[in-house]
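Ex. 9. Protein: Transcriptional regulator with XRE-family HTH domain.
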Amino acid sequence: MDRKEHIGKMFGKNLKHLRSSRGQSQVEFAEEIKLSDKKLSKLELGQNHPSFTTLIKLHRKFGFKVDPIIQEICENLGPYEAEFDDEE
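Predicted structure tokens for Transcriptional regulator with XRE-family HTH domain:
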């Protein structure tokens, strides 16, 4: 698994935990944050990365904190590498 995939999986794990802790299905949670259930499923599986808009929705609606995810990513991935220079 490359680093980009690893980041997606870590985000998805945290997102799924948030949804599960609320006792919601993917459909219920997706409706609440105005995403399709298919997009939510792909985010939870780490197959897609969230947009800034999605991150803002999660933060405003649930207080979903991005800082711990970024910290966990940094701790697990090690030092910054050039492979991220061309990422959007």
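Check your answer against this statement. Residues 84-88 have pLDDT under 50 and may be disordered.
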